[in-house]
Amino acid sequence: MDLTPTPQQLQPAHCSDSEWALRCQLADAYHLVDYFGWTETIFNHISARIPGSDHYLVNPFGLNYDEVTPANLLKVDLAGHKVEPSVYDANPAGFALHSAIHGAREDVHCVMHTHTTEVSAIALKRAGFGHDDFYGAQLTGRVGYHTFEGITLFADEKSRMLSSLGDKHILVLRNHGVAVCEMDIARTFFLLWTVQRAAEIQCTAGAMAGDNVALPGAVSQRCADLTAQLIREDDFAEKFFNAMVRQMRSRQSRRG
């Protein structure tokens, strides 16, 4: 008999059903980033806005991504300070990038930031992301670039980061990494996955001899427009996210 508590049994009495569902999905997102090997040890954040508020859920500083649970996620304000008691510490400095985007973009409810080897390599290159492969084409016209100013700690950089992002949903932090943002967790994860795949393919192709087959701009733009249309559909990204969670849990259970 399996006596493992269900997520519902672990829900604190003071936590609404809608917030708990958000916490469960955000914990899954952290676990997926760990599962795919996109973590940077205890660093970086995935943040999600609690609907109808200026409060956000984010990982406790010092925990690995696979240690994040719905219950230990921190609730913070735009400054990254805890608004509910927790035995865990917040990392206000590391929340600077997220707070800038959340505070300025009403259309954004989730921000994911990574430093994978492939993404960081693209961020280092002057040309940035190419748009000639299947995934890179989907990023056409969707990427902003922000000049590196050092570790993202200081409030005065926020306005410049927002100017670099504009109305886009992907911000390449030059010499650093990437931040992606969307209207919910599932859509943001799908966008991060697409960005990561584009970076992997571009890095691999760049290491191979021979010229790439260039795509006409109209073709790559059409790919980007079609992807944006799919993301706007209510269940497309949700189906993708849930499938990845099932895959992760299935493989983990077989290993266990």
Automatic annotation (TrEMBL):
Family: Belongs to the aldolase class II family.
Ranges where the Class II aldolase/adducin N-terminal domain occurs: 24-203
InterPro entries: Aldolase-II_Adducin_sf, Aldolase_II/adducin_N, Aldolase_II/adducin_N_sf
Taxonomic source organism: Curvibacter cyanobacteriorum
Matching PANTHER family: ADDUCIN, PROTEIN HU-LI TAI SHAO
Protein name: Class II aldolase/adducin family protein
Pfam families associated with the record: Aldolase_II
